[in-house]
Amino acid sequence: MKKSTTGLLIGSALVVGLSGCATSANQSSGQASASSSDRSWYQHPAVCGLAGSLIGGSIGYATSSSSDEDSGAATGAVAGAAIGGLLCADRTPEPVAPQCPTYGEVPAGVAVDAQGCPLDSDNDGVPDYRDQCPGTPAGVEVDAVGCPLDSDGDGVPDYRDQCPNTPAGTEVNALGCPDSVVLQDVNFEFDSAQLTANARDILNGVAERLVNNPDVRVSIDGYTDSRGTAAYNKGLSQRRAESVTTYLAQRGVEANRMRAVGYGEENPIATNETDEGRALNRRVEIDEWN
Question: Selecting from 3.40.50.720, 3.30.1360.130, 3.30.1330.60, 3.30.450.40, what CATH number does the domain 181-288 have?
Fold first, then answer.
């Protein structure tokens, strides 16, 4: 049999084999779950390159003249190796990172934004289609279903709760308190209705929770100890209660939701015979106003 015929037959057989390897490799690459370690040994680019070299060399040898057989075989081997390696190259597409990974799998038909992420109208981190409490104010911490946290489970969320650590099972009012609550450390300058700096800091938190609880009206009640005349104490406590309501109004609480009442030395909660007791009696309380 002539050299050219022999070379072409060998080359043709190798071409068929290489084509099968390349086809299998491409099919494996097209599967999303496939990886380079899942491929058969004969689908590796190095093996295909070797087979391509044999094919190219055989064809180059068969098609060259007797005077340049060596160079023809060499050229064909190099070209065949390159083509074989390319045919069996791993074309598995790189995995695409999810655009909105925090939302998990998004059901069909869910409204999305320009980036393809589910809408979250109140920006609480829970998309609208899962949010059971839409319209949560900005910055309020929420649970997995988008509802404001209620740490003590009293039905009044923390961002509105004036008494956030109520014991379990205690009945509370709309302020989240079982009864009127003393505004601890809301104090005044000596013998005046001027709020101290520390008192203003405390009232800032009270005001924030009242602003977030717009359907509730409150009574601000002022008290004194028993030193001085009853009439004077009554007037001083009234001015102090009014000072608190004025400050709360400046912080955004509607004035028509509040009333100020001065009780003077009435309803003491401690003895007036000691400094400690009198300090406890000089107080401001907040309660729901029905």
Answer: 3.30.1330.60
